[in-house]
TrEMBL record:
<dbReference type="GO" id="GO:0042302">
    <property type="term" value="F:structural constituent of cuticle"/>
</dbReference>
<dbReference type="Pfam" id="PF00379">
    <property type="entry name" value="Chitin_bind_4"/>
</dbReference>
<dbReference type="InterPro" id="IPR000618">
    <property type="entry name" value="Insect_cuticle"/>
</dbReference>
<feature type="signal peptide">
    <location>
        <begin position="1"/>
        <end position="27"/>
    </location>
</feature>
<dbReference type="GO" id="GO:0031012">
    <property type="term" value="C:extracellular matrix"/>
</dbReference>
<protein>
    <submittedName>
        <fullName>Insect cuticle protein</fullName>
    </submittedName>
</protein>
<dbReference type="GO" id="GO:0005615">
    <property type="term" value="C:extracellular space"/>
</dbReference>
<keyword id="KW-0732">Signal</keyword>
<keyword id="KW-0193">Cuticle</keyword>
<dbReference type="InterPro" id="IPR051217">
    <property type="entry name" value="Insect_Cuticle_Struc_Prot"/>
</dbReference>
Amino acid sequence: MNRSAIVQVTIFFQIIIFATCVATTLAQYAAPAYPAPAYSAPKAYNLEPAYAPAPYSFEYSVNDPTTYDIHSQSESSDGNGYVKGTYSLVEPDGSTRVVEYTANDHSGLKKIEG
């Protein structure tokens, strides 16, 4: 081994010994023990009660000549899961699209053909 290699090995071992001494010294000190928090645990989340379905009916329409936003919708429910409604809108080409639909727990949402 030449002198340069011996010096490198010696420096390497000195670094290892130094790192071991630092690690041993730091291992003697435990993390500080903090007291338990002074506040109580949060309360449990209460679920919102389930309400029975109720009949409803609504309708609205928009006619904004500035933005050319023209549409409407109406919908009603019997309170037993059956919903019937319609919506319409004016397409960019000026034609009016009207869609009628029904929905229930058995068949889901369906467009009424016609």
